[in-house]
Amino acid sequence: KAGVTQTPRYLIKTRGQQVTLSCSPISGHRSVSWYQQTPGQGLQFLFEYFSETQRNKGNFPGRFSGRQFSNSRSEMNVSTLELGDSALYLCASSLGRSGTSRNEQFFGPGTRLTVL
Amino acid sequence: DAKTTQPPSMDCAEGRAANLPCNHSTISGNEYVYWYRQIHSQGPQYIIHGLKNNETNEMASLIITEDRKSSTLILPHATLRDTAVYYCIVRPKETSGSRLTFGEGTQLTVNP
Question: Which tens digit of pLDDT belongs to each residue from B30-72?
């Protein structure tokens, strides 16, 4: 079974630009979560999508948005990039079932975004 | 989700058991203990989880104290490839969504 894939793997942008990152979950997984990882803040939850609906949202400004398509693939968008948005952006997929402990998340390799 | 406390770093000799502790003294009765690890520059990887019974899988064993206020992840025969940051996370089973709250974790270094 193929793992979680993220594209692109590396990206360089300048301040003020916008960026779109893509995530393809494991086949059969309906939940896709996004995380931001920086040296200063660690791993922080951005949002989760399940069946094309945002189910959970972290504490990030509105410049960060996402969506999920009917095939469970997800994209996240960051508008008006700031230097502090430089980070590793990780996508994770899971079955997304509620009321069960067996909801392990499978992470992709991440997209390394550098904002200049 | 309950807060966890882990030592920032640990060392282990290759071939020996690595015992990684986690304190979760405020854990609730419906919260599970999960362990993930992150090898440098890769995405985190699920290792194991448990509620109150000890658990074992092909990667590791999880020992949870009877009062559930702490746990230990055991890698029985550590290899150099086990060098990673290990995260202990507690979260309720009865929760909507897959959100994980990561702390700072423990940097495990396995030495030859």
Answer: 889 999 999 988 999 999 999 988 999 999 999 999 999 999 9
Contact A48 B98 (CB under 8 A): yes
Two structure tokens written together for B72 = 């230990």
Query: How far is the C-alpha of A87 from the C-alpha of A78, rounded, in Å?
Result: 12
Taking an 8 Å cut-off on Cβ atoms, the answer to whether B46 and A103 are in contact is no
3-state DSSP assignment of residue A11: strand
Residues 6+ apart with CB under 8 A from B96: A55, A56, A98
Residues pairing with A57 in the sheet = A47
Give the DSSP letter string of A22-60. Answer: EEEPPTT--EEEEEEEETTTEEEEEEEEETTEEEEE-S-
CA distance B29 to A21: 38
Q: What is the DSSP string of A61-82?
A: -TTEEEEE-TTS-EEEEE-S--
From A92, which residue of chain B is nearest by alpha-carbon distance?
B43
Contact A103, B91 (CB under 8 A): no
Torsional sign, CA B109, A41, A49, A115: negative
Q: What is the pLDDT of residue B112?
A: 95
Report the pLDDT averaged over residues A90-96: 90
- For chain B, percent of residues with pLDDT exceeding 90: 76
Does B91 score more than 90 pLDDT? Answer: no
